[in-house]
Structures
1.
Amino acid sequence: MGRLETGIQKGRLTPAEYEANFSDLHPRLDKHEALVASDRCYFCYDAPCMTACPTSIDIPMFIRQISTGNPIGSAKTIFDQNILGGMCARVCPTEQLCEEACVRNTAEERPVEIGRLQRYATDIAMAENKQFYSRAAATGKTIAVVGAGPAGLACAHRLAVKGHSVVIFDAREKAGGLNEYGIATYKTVDDFAQKEVDYVLSIGGIEVRNGQMLGRDFSLADLSSQYDAVFLGLGLSGVNALRAAGEDLDGVADAVAYIADLRQADDKADMAIGRRVVVIGGGMTAIDAAVQAKLLGAEEVTICYRRGKEHMNASEFEQDLAASKGVIIRHWLAPKQIIAKDGKVAGIEVEYTALVDGKLTGTGDTGVIAADQIFKAIGQTFEASGLGALKMEAGRIVIDTDGRTSLSGVWAGGDCVLGGEDLTVAAVAQGRDAAESINRVLAAGAQPAVAVA
């Protein structure tokens, strides 16, 4: 272990420790491992794993192709349904989706390693720059896509394949959205997110305009008047407030922003971290922030969640991963106030909670956890201006089953829509399906009917 100074410090570890801590969480299978793993698949006729995949990848087919020594064909099967299959293989909660549905997932057996097999195939195809798609004859139509995250990229790629031209507007300096800025560093190493963006854009016909924000640089009305269709893949940019006294103290930070800064850091030693860190929240962001705090050299990292283990949005695998890295997860604790010393964080007062008649209630009993750094990971909010009269509900965009919004010619998908699942793979599916809907409407030469009253 490296140096462990008090307070928030940079360079707690040695270069070798940083490199080891942030190495690939699940290195790619080699050929022999992939053949052994694929041989465990029963190639089920009814394929419950396929049903559990939001993008409906033909999982038995792609695994069979690997087992017969055809990883390139396997990648084609994957990309046909999910052009971001490489990233999804790394970050999908497969233990809650395809692998949970696997018939070999029993008390006596573990499921087929579907995620790792998917990565094996897609990595080989991308490394060889194997392109499976060419653009259809140009249609003369141009679609505006707002947001270069998973939903926007999937939508843009499918539209480009159909022969349409696409202009993607994104507020960030780099394309990729959540995949570039919101995923734990150890889950996607070697700048894979940008390599995947480059792979997707190589289809041609897609222009990316970075540093362009809806509501600041243009409005939805502007796009609707200038383009044949619009797709909104805006994601979630806001962060919920802690609503606890002391939230503005030096040492309190948004976990989302910290993860993004870490992803963009050229040197992990430049990332300052506390000696005692508390993360408030129970989702994937909380787990990612806590684990990475530990990997950066924090001595003690505690996750505080207001409900029980069974209520956490983070999967059991992710919870176990955090525990294996030395993260302490404490349940039934709600933040009450942040304690300061000399204007900086010194600890957090928490209140014990309980469910009373199904409602979360404070018990009145409190305790204090010492901390010099606190991360807020209590959910993100949709914040966007320039949307005009677009129908919203519960702070999200309302869409129909084809992704159409209440405004003619405007589609949406991903985390910004009502019912969004906060999953990369779900965003890809919505972007892809919206593109198919847009193409049908444009091919018919008709104006889309207003989808949502």
2.
Amino acid sequence: MYRQLTTALCTLTFVASAMADPALGTWQTAPDDNGNYGHILVGMCGDSLCGELVQSFSSDGEVLESENIGRNIIWDMKARGNDRYDGGKIWSPDRDKTYTSKMELVDSGKGLAVEGCILFICRDGGTWKRIE
């Protein structure tokens, strides 16, 4: 009985790990207009990806105090297959603007290419680097 239960739990754990979205984890953003960057913790919010600012840094790598720590930067991002995501929003603290966005895993999952648009004007958000 215990052996069957242990086998079932191990199988469920393996399946859950295999099904985890490859974009989950902590990402370092590309530098903003001021040269500052942040660490974004990407996780699941229901059936969508969301990402919270967990730390801010100056252009020289010093930790910055920010009122935006804990704020969602990404929300409602949907996986579309082939390491592509869209349908969500990304908020840019340096411009205080929210963009309709898309993302794509690049460099074997070590990078996350980000782009956002407001109407027909799009902004390249650069490629974020995986931290964890």
3.
Amino acid sequence: MDASGRRGGLQLRRSLGTFGLVFVMFFTTSGGAYGTEGLVSSVGPGMALLLMALVPVVWVLPEALLIGELASMLPEEGGYYRWVHRAFGPFWAFQNGWLTWLYSLVDMAIYPVLFAQYLAYFTGPLPRGVGWLVSLAMIWGATVVNLRGARPVGWASVAAGLFVLGGFLAVSVAAIPQMSHAPWVPFARPGSSPVATLGLGLSIALWNYIGWDNASTVEGEITDAGRTYPRALAIAVPLVSAGYLVPIGSALAATDWSTWREGHWPQLARAAAPAWGGVLAPWVALGGVLSALALFNALLLAYSRIPAVMADDGLLPPSLAQTDERGTPRRAVLAAAVVYSVFALVPFGGLVVADVVLYALALCLEFGALVALRHREPGLRGPFRLPLGTRGVAVLAAVPMVLLAGVIGLSLVGGEYGPWAIGLTAAGVVLGPVVYRRLARGEATPYLRAP
């Protein structure tokens, strides 16, 4: 890839800056405290707060540091797919992209549901058919923004992010007079199984924090990507963590935790700050609508680049790698939107465990790529590099992987969704090599055939 962000059929424009990238990261990992109500009601307030505080230390920080070095080292379109390709070749790069697409199907089916859920605050419950039409309108609204390029997606993310964070900050401040008890009491949900509760709670907490590598797929469209990506990570990580912990802690101290239900942040805003509830509840509800839209918008930007770079490598039809005058792989965006429109009909609510495991398996390949490249190409480095040797990097990479192993074990032993979700995960992983062999039988570019 040359300085203009060009490789094969992809002709890209570097137009996304630090500020826009921070909020793209915000929406490819978090989107605000929406969805954490279910964590509190499932595991109890104390455990929910502990998990949301510990996961950034044992999962997010190691991931962000390792991803920051990779993104700085190889600032190319396709991000993690290119990193794994450089380290291990096309087969493993495809498996990395395949795993990404599997968990994206779960992710992208959830956000239209959240969109309709918060929209119902203003319209009342939507009939099933109408709800799907609303979901389609959301999907294709995000697609229109994506077709205009990475920069408009970035500015749309900034606007939505400021509105969402502003609403939760207002609730947190307005709740102060109502705080009447410690937010971590009781620690666990009474009568729950500790093993099952911890397994489910860890899966939900991890799901709310995963995705720091997602935006790397558009590195060919980021201004000075080698410096900008690590810089944006340094801002986005504490922003996301505070965006969870501040509103959850404030609302728990001012409300009865047993009333927390999925999709109830507007009601919690009214309960936590009754004097301001008439203003805050609609603000938070509208923030939920915008957050779901912005989540889908940012992730469509990230996920659509995987088929584009695979097409550039000869694994998919070459038309998917063609870019328009804005440097946008239009056909890849449209193809992704069609797939997600179909899967919006599929109920994926019980697959949080599968989503986390698939993501973590893909992350194993990325961390392995960094260790391999450190060993094999010691001169390959970018502006940001961890002050650790190869062994130190390997130890740092092992920390989140140990947490993953714990989640899988707890889910199998006592998790509500564990065994069948992990069974589906295993089936998807096994299918990856089969799909690769079929696709690789066609005419591949010289780049694909490279070792």
4.
Amino acid sequence: MKGFTVALMLIGAVSASICWATPDIRVNGLFGGSAVLVINGKQRLLKKGQTSPEGVTLIDSDSRQAVLKVDGKQVTLGLSDQISSRFKAAEVAEVRIPRADNGHYFVSGFINGRPVDFMVDTGATSIAMNLHHAETLGVNFRSGKKSAASTAGGMVNTYQVPLEKLVIGNITLHQVDATVVIGDFPSQVLLGNSFLSRVEMSEEEGVMVLRTKY
């Protein structure tokens, strides 16, 4: 009987170790060939082909998703997606954006439900986009306030319009001011201060961290 009890204890210990083997993973930042993951509560910036100390391998990634190898299985996760086994999700929404080789920060998100790639620009007063971006995203800019702005190429016509919904990772804001430039500038949709001023922003070892204030 004693041997049987010991055997049961060993089986229980093995089962427990198996149950606890799968790490908790959250995707906090995505970039071409790299991803910012939070694994068991620790931030890991992995490049394609790298394996974290917890045994999570980044097979590939782009601005929309990361393909990981976890416990011998391949899984695909989008920004803010999570595999949770032990850790509770953070109460404060958070997004981590790795710095690109050119020194800028790029992140994917959604404007009114439509996907868009942003470049973070702390010098931009608001979300800024060109005419083509606005038409592609279905932004009804002509209903906004007409204005003008000075650029390197001279004066350009603009429209000031509120965006009903803007999503970056698990951060969602409503009624975010945007500027639509009638022309080809800027070439990239800019994530400006009409969004950034409404979140907490910091930098940790080359990673920009955005958190909700409330």
